[in-house]
Design brief:
Helix content is 64%, strand content 0%. The protein is globular, with a radius of gyration of 25 Å. Helix 6 (126-134) packs antiparallel against helix 7, helix 7 (140-151) crosses helix 8 (172-186) and helix 8 (172-186) crosses helix 9 (198-207). It is built from 12 helices and no strands. By secondary structure, it is an all-alpha fold.
């Protein structure tokens, strides 16, 4: 029996080395793409926040309100069992709920006393204006922002505006933001009144359960109130700055 020499392994070694380099290059490319995507998301979120701030400054607010609306809406959505990506999206979309106020004349928007019937009609066009600004896009966060802008003054009993939608016909995102916006607005200082105590605002929210607000949203908000107020107070103190919902959840767990 003749022994045959073992074939050289140089070619195999080179193949393995090339495969390893390809895998390493692939991972490097993936990390670079992920870093670029994260940077794009940050820039995108900053742009959306600036857009929302334009409306808030026109309305005389400092801008902290829109940060709270986004963070609190996202946290409430998670507590209601909404998917993580949906909850993150509402955190980014909710601050744009009043963007339509850009189209309202200052004489009406900043009027210190009550509005006339005609002025009220003009003011009530801001949801439609907001939806027009944000709509006609295939970007998911802007699609949600448009439905929130259009629906955040609708009421559970169908007595809201602009379309008198009722119950589940109102998008879930708008129902969440409506309740969060109501509670936050009551508990912040305004030019015409001081902030109301949390307990007073909670009772007013409960009184609107089933008429103004989705009962399930009210129940979840009341149950989540310790977390929500802790996060709100941290934002007011400047201790929480983030564009990602997980940061809000982490803050609540830590406090």
């Amino acid at each position: 029996m003749i022994d045959h020499p073992t074939p050289p392994t140089i070619g195999n070694d080179l193949d393995q080395h090339q495969i390893l380099r390809i895998v390493q290059d692939f991972h490097l490319l993936r990390r670079q793409r992920e870093d670029a995507y994260d940077e794009l998301k940050r820039a995108y979120h900053i742009t959306l926040t600036k857009l929302a701030l334009a409306a808030e400054y026109k309305d005389g607010d400092t801008g902290t309100h829109i940060v709270r609306i986004g963070a609190l809406s996202g946290l409430l959505a998670r507590n209601m069992g909404m998917p993580a990506d949906w909850s993150e999206r509402i955190e980014q979309a909710a601050p744009m709920h009043d963007i339509g106020k850009i189209g309202i004349p200052d004489g009406i928007l900043k009027k210190p006393d009550g509005l006339t019937v005609e002025e009220r009609k003009v003011m009530e066009t801001h949801p439609v204006i907001g939806a027009q600004i944000l709509g006609n896009t295939n970007v998911p966060v802007l699609q949600m922002a448009a439905e929130i802008a259009l629906g955040h003054h609708e009421r559970w009993d169908g007595q809201g505006y602009p379309n008198r939608l009722k119950g589940d016909a109102i998008p879930q995102s708008a129902r969440i933001v409506t309740a969060i916006d109501f509670f936050d607005a009551l508990t912040m200082d305004r030019c015409y009144r001081k902030a109301l105590p949390d307990d007073t605002a909670k009772e007013m929210l409960r009184r609107g359960r089933g008429s103004h607000f989705d009962p399930a949203v009210v129940d979840a908000l009341v149950a989540s109130l310790p977390q929500l107020t802790a996060l709100r107070d941290a934002i007011n103190r400047g201790e929480w700055v983030s564009h990602h919902l997980q940061s809000a959840s982490s803050f609540v767990r830590a406090h």
